[in-house]
Design goal:
By secondary structure, the protein is of the alpha+beta class. The chain has one domain. The protein has two helices and five strands. The chain has a five-stranded antiparallel beta sheet with strand order 1-2-3-4-5, covered by helices on one side. A hairpin with a 2-residue loop joins strand 2 and strand 3. The longest helix is centred in the N-terminal third of the chain and has 14 residues.
Length: about 110
């Protein structure tokens, strides 16, 4: 999945279905954006989530061999490269269950 395909999928959803809720969130570390669309379809209530995050280039673990010392992990992110993922959910008994979405991915 990439941004162009997401724009196509998003446009199809917005044109074809009744949208219940649509919002965008940023991650706590400001390295990612989450776009969510909830809508009514013939199969029931559905939700799609599109995740866009900066690519992790490296990970450094800081620790000490002393007893009781903590561990911290520092990530190095790319300024130019992004990763994308799409998840689809169906509402079953007021809970969101993830479904496979091969038609979105291909």
């Amino acid at each position: 999945m990439n941004q162009e395909k997401w724009k196509d999928v998003k446009a199809k959803i917005l044109d074809s279905f009744d949208v219940i809720n649509q919002y965008t969130n940023t991650d706590d570390d400001n390295h990612g954006i989450l776009e969510v669309i909830e809508f009514k379809s013939p199969a029931g209530e559905m939700k799609v989530e599109f995740h866009e995050r900066d690519l992790v280039l490296d990970k450094h673990t800081n620790y000490s061999n002393r007893i009781g010392s903590g561990v911290s992990v520092d990530y190095i992110y790319s300024n130019t490269e992004k990763t994308y993922s799409l998840k689809a959910y169906k509402k079953v008994n007021d809970d969101w269950e993830q479904i496979e979405a091969p038609s979105f991915v291909s």
